[in-house]
Amino acid sequence: MKKSKQLAILSICILCIIVGIAFYITPVSYFVMLPGEALDTSEYVKVQAEQPMEKGQFLLTTISLRRANVADYVLSYTSDEVKLLPESDILAKDESDEQYEQRQKENMMESQTHAIIAAFQQAKKPIEIKRLGVEVIGLVEESKSKLQKGDLIEEVDGQVIGKQEDLANLLEKKKAGETVQVRVIRSNKPINEQVTLVPLKGTNRIGLGIIPMDRVKVVTQPPVEIHADEIGGPSAGLMFSLELLDQLLPENLTRGYTIAGTGTIDMNGRVGQIGGIDFKVRAADEKGATIFFCPRDQSPKDQNEKIAKETVKQIGSNMRVVPVSSLDEAVKYLLKLPMNDTAVNDNTLTGLG
Q1: Per the residue annotation, which of 145, 241, 280, 287 is the catalytic one?
Q2: Residue 347 to residue 320: CA distance in whole angstroms
Q3: Are residues 181 and 237 in the same domain?
Q4: pLDDT for position 202
């Protein structure tokens, strides 16, 4: 009798362990977003010039995103720091997890290039921008396209293609089913391909059946480097630009404060919306940031400014949310701040309304 009871208890324990393991490893058709980190941008951005020792720092903010399991699904109903997102919100149609990761890496590379261009133009420092063409970073109609991932498109029907806008303008009056001659660089060799145009899903336009990305070569004086290979996506663009400016200009842009933020940036310094801003606000607050730059809400669909301000109230933070629509706007705000000569983590801002 005693032995039977022990066996029963052992069986229940084993069953609980099996259920527990299954609970954590069974995937669901969602991704889970979790709080990330606030990271010192000076660890990733280097200008090859002598840098003065300054108080204050700029922080880029991140989120953690991975495949959800059953445990995440349950926790999402009990915690504000676990958010489930449907696959369709993360992956493009027929996109694999690996292709998504690659797309995020490509977006980060483009973000770094845009950040450098925007910062040097803002600082009025020497910069040479050479457009190389449009690279194929993925195929959306693989069975119909002769183009390959990694191809660099230089010409279409004899017209030079320097950027995606050139390609869109050229194809604007063409129809699905028509063919165009595309000159690409593939494995360092020029190749001509006849490509059939296809409709772009969700739009009334046609295209080459590719996921395109502009490729440019940038030469600056002084030289700069950005190394952030472990971070994906385009949302660190604004903070990279601010860090570059802080190292390029004689002014201390941080004014002695810890300043976090997020936002995409284009070559002209325009700041765009990003995802997971509520978690990024939390990460910035935990790191003791005084100010949080976020993209300004400019259209009915924009939510970054609204969510950032709501999150600050929800967590009871003293951090000031500053919405901006451009790099220039962020710089002008910083230069109006009073200098903070106390401590890097001082969350007190005086002298401003």
Answers
A1: 280
A2: 9
A3: no
A4: 64
Q: Which residue has the higher pLDDT, 346 or 75?
A: 75
For residue 10, CA distances in Å to 3, 16, 20, 22 come to 10, 10, 15, 18
Place of tokens 């990024």: 280
Q: How many CB atoms lie within 10 A of CB 191?
A: 14
pLDDT score of 277 more than 70? yes
Closest CA to 73 of 115, 124, 27, 118: 27
For residue 290, give its domain range.
31-67+107-126+221-335
Distance CA 193, CA 272 (A): 35
Higher pLDDT, 263 or 22: 263
Domain count, the chain: 2
Same domain, 35 and 173: no
Catalytic residue among 76, 145, 235, 317: 235
Instruction: Please say if 149 is a catalytic residue.
Output: no
Number of neighbouring beta carbons within 10 Å of residue 312: 20
- 222's tokens: 């002084």
Residue given tokens 């022990």 in the structure block? 6
pLDDT band per the 50, 70, 90 thresholds, residue 28: low
Closest CA to 123 of 241, 41, 218, 239: 241
pTM of structure: 0.79
The beta strands (E) that lie in 80-156 are given as 83-86, 127-139, 152-156
d(CA 304, CA 323): 9
The predicted-structure confidence for 285-294, as pLDDT tens digits, reads as follows: 999 999 999 9
Residue 353: pLDDT above 50?
A: no
Cis before 300? omega within 30 = no
Residues 145 and 255 grouped into a single domain: no
Q: Is 88 a catalytic site residue?
A: no
User: Rounded to an integer, what is the distance from CA 306 to the centroid of its chain?
Assistant: 19
pLDDT of 11: 47
Tokens read off for 297? 């809400």
